[in-house]
Amino acid sequence: MSNGTDRLPPLHALRAFEAAARHLSFKRAAAELHVTPGAVSHQVKLLESVLGVPLFRRLTRALELTAEGQLLLPKVGEGLATLHAAFEQLRQRNEGCALNVHAPPNFASRWLIPRLNGFTSAHPDLALHLASRQSMIDGRDGGELVQRTNDGRDDAPVVSIRFGTGHYPGSHVDEVFAAEYVPVCSPRLLRGDRPLRKPEDLRAHTLLHDDTVLEETARPNWGAWLEAVGVEGVDAGRGSRFSDASLAIEAAIEGMGVALAVQPLLATEIEAGRLAVPFDIVAPANWAYFLVAPDADADRPPVTAFRRWLLAEAGHAKAVPVVTPGSA
């Protein structure tokens, strides 16, 4: 069954043969394939020419498969079904209906979740799985980039928001925003017997420390911030210590003292009156927040939709309002 060439027969000819063999009719095969009976007959003759054998016995009002046609039919049907399954899998992968998002806990709870309804409302058919992970901070738990989640869709793309250097080989990386640190406290500390009006007033207040383990130069601590603003007489090491930034911010909300926190993450608390910025003196960090997607997933529709939305939200976010004693 060969004419001496290794070239595969044309796909159109194989489809025409398979349909005609199932129906034993060129007319019914043509209706299924949305072509004319003459076109089906032509494709079958082309296949017979390539193979060098007849596949049908053409009777007066019917078709019969030859022995060669009977041998070929199941294999052609199997091959076409396999091709169809592969194309469908690729189509579903490109369209996508799920997305896994991993983010640092503080970013996820204070910045992402308050805005996330805008994304899910715009994409109601996309199943979003958000995971809060300390490993999305560089240097934590081996610094993994992404990992699959047990959400029933192993092929669902994974993107991560990372706090780090921005150097992630093999990934598409976009900066979300820089990490700028400002002092934050309960609005109650702006008033009373020892109001916070200027940096020197920190001498009378408790400093709250975030002990998240980072590289020494990743972000400013109280010592670096006080030195940058030229304040002396404040013991930068005193005060209460917390294992992560979220706990330190909660302590500040409760009036326990003054914390250093990333300015863009605090808009919700400040707008609600739970936090205030006593003096708007910014200390930039060397690290920033980045959206990271593996190169293999970077152009998939769920990833590109999330990227457009996230970067637009970051661009539209207004500067955190500064609450001062005069405006409190």
Q: What's the CATH architecture name of the largest domain?
A: 3-Layer(aba) Sandwich
CATH-defined topology of the largest domain? D-Maltodextrin-Binding Protein, domain 2
CA radius of gyration is: 32 Å
Detail the poorly predicted runs: 1-5, 146-153, 318-328
H/E element order: HHHEEHEHEEEEHEHEHEH
Helix count, DSSP H or I runs of 4 or more residues: 9
Helical percent range?
Answer: 25-40%
Strand content: 15-25%
The major pleated sheet works out as: 8 strands, mixed
* Integer tally of domains: 3
Strand tally is 10
What general outline do the C-alpha atoms trace? rod-shaped
Mind telling me the CATH superfamily name of the largest domain? Periplasmic binding protein-like II
The strand line-up of the biggest sheet is: 4-3-5-10-6-9-7-8
On the 0 to 100 scale, the average pLDDT is 85
Descriptive key words:
328 residues; alpha/beta; Arc Repressor Mutant, subunit A; D-Maltodextrin-Binding Protein, domain 2; 3 domains; 9 helices
Protein model, in words:
The protein is of the alpha/beta class. The protein has three domains: 11-95, Winged helix-like DNA-binding domain superfamily/Winged helix DNA-binding domain (Arc Repressor Mutant, subunit A); 98-177 and 289-316, Periplasmic binding protein-like II (D-Maltodextrin-Binding Protein, domain 2), CATH 3.40.190; 179-285, D-Maltodextrin-Binding Protein, domain 2 (3-Layer(aba) Sandwich). 37% of the residues lie in helices and 19% in strands. It has nine helices and ten strands. The protein has helices at 11-23, 26-33, 37-51, 67-95, 105-122, 222-229, 245-253, 267-271, 301-316; strands spanning 56-58, 63-65, 98-103, 127-132, 158-164, 171-184, 207-210, 240-242, 258-262, 283-294. The strands form two sheets. It has an eight-stranded mixed beta sheet, sandwiched between helices. The chain has a two-stranded antiparallel sheet with strand order 1-2. Helix 1 (11-23) crosses helix 3 (37-51), helix 1 (11-23) packs across helix 4 and helix 2 packs across helix 3. The model is unreliable at 1-5, 146-153 and 318-328 (pLDDT under 50).
